[in-house]
Every structure is written in structure tokens, then in C-alpha cells.
């Protein structure tokens, strides 16, 4: 069905241009992300650093500071933001398509609630369970806990939401609500047990931050967020069939239950792996797919990759704002995404109407 | 093409369909009629593979339905449901183009554009192509869904089957005639057409055979005269029907006994 694009519509050509446009936006945002901030880096510094890393030309002395800022802080942070944002955007688009609900977001499948519970548990109980080892494992304990917690919560939600082999959308949604409520309650118990310093750690984790981005994390994120994001984009055709409803999708040859299970798994892995390293970041998964749809229509061949590109772009820019607005202090990036996302979303709704 | 062998469908302990056997043949229009709640849509959904059957089985080209891959089914039978609501806004042309999904990555993909154009012409919806589906009337949506199904069957290797659930329900008389004539034309070209219909005169006009369901059981299945027998109609609808001059059935509403 190459032709939803090719049919006579004059808008069709504009749509095809959308993916290169999104890629260009992401590249521009990433460039701004590495150059700008409390300690600005010049294009000269960036070029010299890249040439040095590639072994083409040695680093001139005047750019040593730029190279340090780029290599240690900016580059891993911007790459992390792009990957995590892409995962949230694509997962949000997939969940909205799967649940056929414009208000669906990745939080709905329990993944963020479960990740939060596990992360908070790790913060509160980590040092008492792992003792001195917790310090050594510091870089990985929290992410691994959050990742596993997020996946377990989604698995539980999928199990509870499946009756006689059929995962009904309404049952799944309610199971997600229940799992989130349970995770929230247990998180509350953990917070009750936490000391003051831990409560502060917990608060900042739940507001999200990219400040902890490390090169060591990036290969893991590239695989666990990047691959599921690409795989979700490859499900565009079955998602298009699901636009008509589950029975119609089956009539069109889609193995509906398999696609549902696969999409839930991919979205859960992508979101859990991202959240594991950055904490909770809201609104990207909800707003970004709508932005793409409002501009380019409901075709998932555009919505899924478009939401990934735009999600990466927005999170890179939100992180740039988060570390610039109150410099030298940093705002939690989740606060920035919500502050930008909520009014923008409302404005779009008022302008275009829901139409769903 | 598609056959039901003693099919029983249960929901909540109640048999929605009991022991129904029938065959849909290539080149014919089979109308399924019967009072509300008789199991007409259930029969259609069982034949389409949407429902698990409690007993008996549905066969497609002689092979049990559950042994078919969904994609192979989609390349030889299309279904038009009563209501289709979209998850997100789309244009009518995009909805119709979704009918080409089963042919992705096959040689038939080359026909995508031609198939959609032809389907829109046949269903008389070419002028609606650029309209947002959500802004269409109920009748216009039904015709768009018919076009989507026609696009889906374009390129089927063997005779295809088209199952329609009350396709005329929201249509005005003119468009009803258009659709019924289209179904006849499709049958003449070899397609097996099954349509759930409410209006007995429509069944009379379009069908080669009529299946009458009463309380989940097949009360009659055969030629129009046999299935639309006045005694049977009285039993099914609790109303006497009379033939009017020139052919046609008229329910005598005033004589309703229940």
C-alpha cells in the first residue's frame, strides 16, 4: 500500500518530505544541544574536537576546555536525550495506535509505575541490601532495578489483561490502571521508610534528569531503546490496519493478538530502558505523536518514525532548557517537558479540535 | 467457497447459533435474513473467523478456517462490518487504500493505485476521496467500506468471497439500488457474496438463495420463493406478509399479533 502516499492528494508530496525534515530537526537540535549551555562551545571547538577524536588533527591548546566539556558532559547527554526521547515518542505513538485512544501514553501499560517502584526501592533499600557493594554498583543498580521493575509491571498488566488468550483493549487498560495504583501504593510505602536525603533523591528521580548520562550507559541504551524503536516503526502496516478496529485488522490479514503482544513488549522495553537511566519524563510520549498526526495524518508509516524523530528533538531541546534556564543549577527535565508540553497540547486541541 | 458444518456459537451459556450448516458458492449472492437477534451477524462473524465456534466448523475452500493464516484469508475474502469507527482521523481515500494491505510485498502491489481507483468508481465514492472519514454520513461511510473491501479483493487468484453485514442499512433508495446491482455484478464475475439484509424485498431482488434464521437456527435455505414463504415469514416476524402486484412483499403492520 505504497499508495496512501501516492494517491492524487497534493498533500502527499509534503508528507514524503516529512521524514528527512524530522531528521534535519533532530540533527539541528543535537547540534544546539552540544554547543549551547552554561559553558558555550564554539563551532571551532566542536570541529577541532571531532577532528581530534577521528585522529585527523591533534587538538589545539585553545580548545582543550571545549573538548572536555563536549566529551565528558555534552555528547553523552545529548545522545542519551535523543535516544530516550525517540523511544518515548515511538512507544507513545504505538500505545495510542494499539489502544485506539488519543490519551494513551507509555505510562498506561504500567511501565513507568513499575520502574518508579523499583527505582525508589533501590534508593531506599539499596545500601542496606547490598551494603558497601551498593556504592560500587551505583552506576548500574538504579537503572537495572528500574528496567526490571518496568518490565515486570507491564508483564503483570498483560497477564491480568488477558482473558482466554485474548487481550481486550478495555481489560488491558483497566489492568494497567490497577497495576499503576498498586505500584504507586508500594512506592508510597517506600517513601514513608526513606530518610530525608533519600526522599530528595526520589523526588528528583521521579522528575527526570539527563545529568547522569555516561558513555558507559550509551551502548546499553542504544540497543535497548534504539532497536525496539526501529522494530516499532516496522509494525506500521499492522498498526494502520488497527486504525479500522481489531476485527477489521484481522480481516485484512493481521495476526492481531501477536501484534499486540509484540508492540506491548517493544514499547515496554524501550520506555523501561530509557526511564532506567533518566527517571520519569512525562508528556513526550503523549504529545509528540499528536504533533506528528496533526501535521501529517494518521498513517503509521509516518507517525511512528516521525514520533521517534520529534521525540528525540524535543527531549534534546527540553534538556538544553533544563540546564540553561536556572544555570548553574538545573531544572528537572520532566518539569520542562510538562511545562512546554501541556500548554502546547491544549493550544493544539483548541485550534484543531480532537477530531478523533 | 465458505461452508459452515453444524456450527454452534455460544455466549454466556446461550446458543446464538445452533447447528447451522450452509455453503456459500462462487458466483452467487446468498442473502441472510431473519428477525432481530436471530443470529444473522453472528453467522457472518463465524464465517469470517471473528468468533470461536463451540461446535462444528467453518471451512474455506474445504480447509478448516483455523488452519488458514490470516493473510491468506485476507487475500480471498473481505468483510464489510456494520459500523467502522476510526482510531484517528483519516481521509476516505486512505481508508480505502488500507484494503491493499494484504497485497503488500506481492506482485499485486503494482495494482494498488488502479485497484483503489476502480473500487472507488464501483462503489460510487470517487467524489468522497479527499473528505475526512469522520465528516461522512453513515451511508457514505458504508459505501467507503464497501470500496475498501473491493480494493482488498482486487487481484485475488481464485474466486473471492465478500461478506457484508447489513450493507444497505444507512443507504437511501438510490444508493441501495446501486449497491445491490453492484453485488449482482460481482456475483456474475464469480465472487461469492453473502449479505445480511433486513429488507426482504432487497433479498428478493439480489439473492440467488436466501437463508432464513430464526432463534439461531436455520429455518430455511434455498430459492427465494422457498425461504420467503408466507407461513415461514409469519413464524419469523409474527406478522402476515402479502405479495403485491408486480412482485414484492409487504408486511401487514396493523395485523401484528404479538
UniProtKB/TrEMBL annotation, chain B:
Q: Could you tell me which Pfam families the record lists for this protein?
A: ABC_tran
Annotated GO molecular function terms are: ATP binding
Is the keyword Transcription regulation in the record? Answer: no
Origin: domain of life? Bacteria
- Report the residue ranges that make up the ABC transporter domain in this protein: 2-240
What InterPro entries does this protein's entry cite?
Answer: AAA+_ATPase (IPR003593), ABC_transporter-like_ATP-bd (IPR003439), ABC_transporter-like_CS (IPR017871), P-loop_NTPase (IPR027417)
Q: Which UniProt keywords apply?
A: ATP-binding, Nucleotide-binding, Translocase, Transport
Function description = Part of the ABC transporter complex HmuTUV involved in hemin import. Responsible for energy coupling to the transport system.
Q: What is this protein called?
A: Heme ABC transporter ATP-binding protein
Amino acid at each position: 500500500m505504497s499508495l496512501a502516499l501516492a494517491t492524487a492528494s497534493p498533500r502527499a508530496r509534503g508528507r514524503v518530505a516529512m521524514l528527512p525534515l524530522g531528521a534535519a530537526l533532530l540533527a539541528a537540535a543535537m547540534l544546539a544541544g552540544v554547543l549551547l549551555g552554561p559553558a558555550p562551545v564554539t563551532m571551532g571547538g566542536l570541529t577541532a574536537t571531532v577532528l581530534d577524536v577521528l585522529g585527523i588533527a591533534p587538538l589545539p591548546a585553545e580548545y582543550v576546555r571545549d573538548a572536555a566539556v563536549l566529551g565528558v558532559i555534552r555528547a553523552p547527554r545529548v545522545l542519551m536525550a535523543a535516544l530516550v526521547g525517540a523511544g518515548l515518542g515511538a512507544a507513545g505513538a504505538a500505545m495510542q495506535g494499539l489502544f485506539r485512544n488519543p490519551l494513551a501514553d507509555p505510562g498506561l501499560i504500567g511501565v513507568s509505575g513499575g520502574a518508579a517502584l523499583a527505582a525508589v526501592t533501590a534508593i531506599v533499600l539499596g545500601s542496606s541490601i547490598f551494603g558497601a557493594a551498593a556504592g560500587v554498583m551505583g552506576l548500574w543498580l538504579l537503572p537495572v532495578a528500574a528496567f526490571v521493575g518496568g518490565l515486570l509491571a507491564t508483564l503483570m498488566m498483560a497477564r491480568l489483561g488477558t482473558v482466554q488468550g485474548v487481550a481486550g483493549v478495555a481489560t488491558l487498560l483497566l489492568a494497567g490502571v490497577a497495576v499503576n495504583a498498586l505500584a504507586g501504593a508500594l512506592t508510597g510505602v517506600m517513601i514513608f521508610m526513606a530518610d530525608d536525603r533519600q526522599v530528595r533523591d526520589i523526588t528528583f528521580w521521579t522528575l527526570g534528569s539527563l545529568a547522569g548520562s555516561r558513555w558507559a550507559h550509551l551502548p546499553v541504551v542504544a540497543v535497548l531503546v534504539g532497536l525496539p524503536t526501529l522494530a516499532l516503526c516496522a509494525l506500521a502496516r499492522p498498526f494502520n490496519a488497527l486504525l479500522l478496529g481489531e476485527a477489521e485488522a484481522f480481516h485484512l490479514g493481521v495476526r492481531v493478538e501477536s501484534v499486540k503482544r509484540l508492540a506491548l513488549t517493544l514499547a515496554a522495553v524501550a520506555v523501561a530502558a530509557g526511564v532506567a537511566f533518566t527517571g520519569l519524563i512525562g508528556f513526550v510520549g503523549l504529545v509528540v505523536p499528536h504533533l506528528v498526526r496533526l501535521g501529517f495524518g494518521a498513517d503509521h508509516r509516518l507517525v511512528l518514525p516521525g514520533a521517534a524523530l520529534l521525540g528525540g528533538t524535543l527531549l534534546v531541546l527540553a534538556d538544553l532548557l533544563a540546564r540553561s534556564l536556572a544555570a548553574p543549577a538545573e531544572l528537572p527535565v520532566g518539569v520542562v517537558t510538562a511545562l512546554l508540553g501541556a500548554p502546547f497540547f491544549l493550544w493544539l486541541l483548541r485550534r484543531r479540535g480532537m477530531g478523533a | 467457497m465458505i461452508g459452515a458444518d453444524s456450527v454452534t456459537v455460544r455466549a454466556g451459556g446461550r446458543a446464538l447459533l445452533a447447528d447451522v450448516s450452509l455453503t456459500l458458492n462462487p458466483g452467487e449472492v446468498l442473502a441472510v435474513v431473519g428477525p432481530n437477534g436471530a443470529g444473522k451477524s453472528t453467522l457472518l462473524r463465524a464465517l469470517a473467523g471473528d468468533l470461536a465456534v463451540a461446535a462444528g466448523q467453518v471451512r474455506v475452500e474445504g480447509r478448516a478456517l483455523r488452519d488458514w493464516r490470516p493473510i491468506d484469508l485476507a487475500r480471498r475474502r473481505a468483510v464489510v462490518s456494520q459500523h467502522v469507527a476510526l482510531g484517528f482521523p483519516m481521509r476516505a481515500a486512505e481508508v480505502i487504500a488500507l484494503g491493499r494491505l494484504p497485497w503488500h510485498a506481492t506482485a499485486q502491489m503494482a495494482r494498488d493505485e488502479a485497484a483503489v481507483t476502480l473500487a472507488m468508481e464501483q462503489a460510487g465514492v470517487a467524489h468522497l476521496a479527499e473528505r475526512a472519514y469522520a465528516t461522512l454520513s453513515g451511508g457514505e461511510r458504508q459505501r467507503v467500506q464497501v470500496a475498501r473491501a473491493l480494493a482488498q479483493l482486487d487481484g485475488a487468484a481464485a474466486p473471492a468471497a465478500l461478506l457484508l453485514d447489513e450493507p444497505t442499512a444507512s443507504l437511501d433508495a438510490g444508493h441501495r439500488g446501486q449497491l445491490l446491482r453492484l453485488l449482482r455484478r460481482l456475483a456474475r464475475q464469480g465472487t461469492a457474496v453473502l449479505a445480511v439484509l433486513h429488507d426482504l424485498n432487497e433479498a428478493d431482488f439480489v439473492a440467488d438463495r436466501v437463508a432464513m434464521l430464526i432463534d439461531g437456527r436455520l429455518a430455511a435455505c434455498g430459492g427465494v420463493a422457498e425461504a420467503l414463504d408466507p407461513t415461514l415469514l409469519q413464524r419469523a416476524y409474527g406478522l402476515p406478509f402479502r405479495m403485491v402486484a408486480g412482485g414484492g412483499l409487504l408486511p401487514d403492520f396493523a395485523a401484528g399479533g404479538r
